[in-house]
Amino acid sequence: MLLKSLHFKRFATFFIIAFSITLYFHLGYNIERYEHAMLGLCILGLFMAYYGILKLKLSWILMVVAGLLFRTIFLGHYPALSQDFFRFIWDGRLLFKGTNPYLFTPNEIMNSQVAILAEMQTLYDGMGPLSQRNFSNYPPIHQMPGFLAAMLSGRSIFGTILILRLILILADLGIVYYGRKLLGLFQMPKNAIFIYFLNPLVVIELTGNLHFEGLMVFFMLLTFYYLKQNKNVSAALFMGISILTKLIPVLVLPLFIYRLGLKKSVQFVGMTIGVVILGFGPFINLGFLMN
Predict the structure, then answer these.
(1) What is the per-residue pLDDT across 254-278, written as a single tens digit (0 to 9) for each?
(2) Helix, strand, coil share (%) of the chain residues, nearest 5
(3) How distant is the alpha carbon of residue 279 from its chain centre?
(4) Each residue of 78-95: pLDDT tens digit?
(5) Residue 73 DSSP symbol
(6) Cβ(43)–Cβ(28) under 8 Å?
(7) pTM for this structure?
(8) What contacts 20, CB < 8 A, 6 or more positions away?
(9) CA–CA separation, 168 vs 166, rounded Å?
(10) How far is residue 210's CA from residue 160's CA, in Å, rounded to a whole number?
């Protein structure tokens, strides 16, 4: 009976992972953003498989391998469900060229008729009219992966996408590592972190569509990890870096009053604000403030 149960678990594991890989591949390479019915069916199937994987209670190593397999499917994929990545690449290449990305809209740069960026027209056309006419709203740490990708990939848009994707995959691995440690400190099941790591929306939106909430979550997780160890200075540093990645963590700052008390929370928020100011410092001038 035990042997049959073991064989069934192996078969179910193989089937669910293979089924998920098939759906991720189909979603990444065969479905357009306007094909709502097919997109919805794929996501429904992926969530059914996700539920099945969690119910199987696999080893953490096997779940890491499964999550990495799902993510590597997208390595050769141009994001089809979002055009935001064109602006990430645009801003990163501006920064690499020594131009403050907060000072000029893409429309202004295109109207100057000075070709300062590799594949400039392709990036401009891809980002869409809303992004074309607006100043960048992505904080400084969010700009760093684009800068690094511009430095390493040269003119290649695909090379840039690949580097951005690898950074996001590394961030997710960091979330698994520190998430398990943090859950252990709270005496909670360590494998609960795979509710995040194997979630289809996380895989699709972060790795697939190149959104940087994963990097933000990684830094926030470090914040909570160091807070749990009463290392408030380190926690404030990573909270500031998290805000410098995406502004969303600003919303949770008032909650630290409950965790730290009034005096320590004022110190914590003050240090966090200091980190944020330092992060924006190199970009601040009159033009930045006016924009």
Answers:
(1) 888 777 888 888 999 999 999 999 9
(2) 80, 0, 20
(3) 19
(4) 888 889 999 999 999 999
(5) G
(6) no
(7) 0.91
(8) 46, 49, 50, 53, 66, 70
(9) 5
(10) 11
Phi and psi based region of residue 79 (left: phi greater than 0; alpha: psi -120 to 50; beta: remaining): beta
Torsion of CA 91, 96, 97, 102, to 10 degrees: 40
Asked if 141 and 248 touch (Cβ cutoff 8 Å), the reply is no
Residue with the two structure tokens 């950074």:
167
Q: Nearest 5°: CA angle at 200, between 194 and 206?
A: 95
Q: pLDDT of 114-153, one tens digit each?
A: 667 778 889 999 999 999 999 999 999 999 999 999 999 8
> How far is 225 from 234, CA to CA, in rounded Å?
10
Asked if 93 and 118 count as a contact pair (C-beta separation under 8 A), the reply is yes
Sequence-separated contacts (24+) of 257-261 with Cβ below 8 Å: 259/227, 260/227, 260/232
Quick one: pLDDT at residue 54?
A: 93
Report the alpha-carbon distance of residue 204 to residue 209 in Å, rounded.
6
For residues 85 and 209, give the distance between their C-alpha atoms in angstroms, rounded to a whole number: 8
**C-alpha span between 224 and 234 (Å, rounded):** 10
Compute the distance between CA of residue 150 and CA of residue 243 in angstroms, rounded to an integer. 23
| Alpha-carbon span 282 to 142, nearest angstrom | 14
Please count the other Cβ atoms lying within 10 Å of the Cβ belonging to residue 77. Answer: 20
Q: How far apart are CA 211 and CA 150, in angstroms?
A: 17
